[in-house]
Amino acid sequence: MRYFIPVIVLAIILMSCKDTKSEQIRTAVRNQLILYPESTLQDLYKNFFQDYFGPGHIVSDTASAGAYLDRELASFEQVSGAYYESTGYNGNFFRVNLSVIKKGLISRNIFFDAFVRSVSDIQIITLEEWKEEWKEIDSVIYLMDLSLAGYEQERAKIFSLLEQDKYVMHHSEQFSNQYDPHYRIIEREIFLKEIRPQLPQ
After folding, report:
1. CA within 20 to 30 Å of 146's CA: 4, 54, 135, 174, which one?
2. Cβ count within 10 A of residue 162
3. Model confidence pLDDT, tens digit, residues 151-184
4. What is the pTM of this model?
5. Continuous H helices in 121-195
6. Going by C-beta distance under 8 Å and a sequence separation of 6 or more, which residues neighbour residue 53?
7. Overall number of domains in the chain
8. 82-85, long-range: CB within 8 Å, 24+ apart, which pairs?
9. Residue 81 located in a structural domain
10. Number of other CB atoms surrounding residue 31 within 10 Å
11. Is residue 1 part of a domain?
12. Is-contact 158 172, C-beta < 8 A?
């Protein structure tokens, strides 16, 4: 009997942790849909993906990444939306709107340096771990019954991609057309220490 009670307590703790994680996922989904009501499942996937992988999949060549940033900055005059937002439910990274550079709030070089350093020291999970993580996130989203545009097609597309051992997805066409996003991903501690203090409170 003395072993039975600790086992029950452990089971309750584990169930509580799972419920907490599910609620964190639901909160992250709700937050994105408040900011971007035209989001599809593909956009939700990208948000959670970025929370684990940051900008690592697009910074293999620093010089090319810098040139690409400069071209993108030259391609628009204004960007709507918040200056920054956290990714996923862990908040490991922040999406930082390129408007902070266009408005002179952060210099291009300081911003780019923070972006590049966000790739170093990332503890990236394995593809198999990400597949399991997404299954859990997907099951929570499924139960939310959100009536997202193209939901079934995009859900099948995501799982098909993962079965091919691929994982990178872009924003949906619907999202891109509606919001014309321009941002970079910056690691949480770098953002909070170096970028956030320079932005309006």
Report:
1. 54
2. 17
3. 999 999 999 999 999 999 999 999 999 999 999 9
4. 0.87
5. 127-144, 151-163, 173-179, 188-190
6. 122, 124, 130, 167
7. 1
8. 82/35, 83/199, 83/200, 84/191, 84/195, 84/196, 84/199, 85/31, 85/35
9. yes
10. 14
11. no
12. no
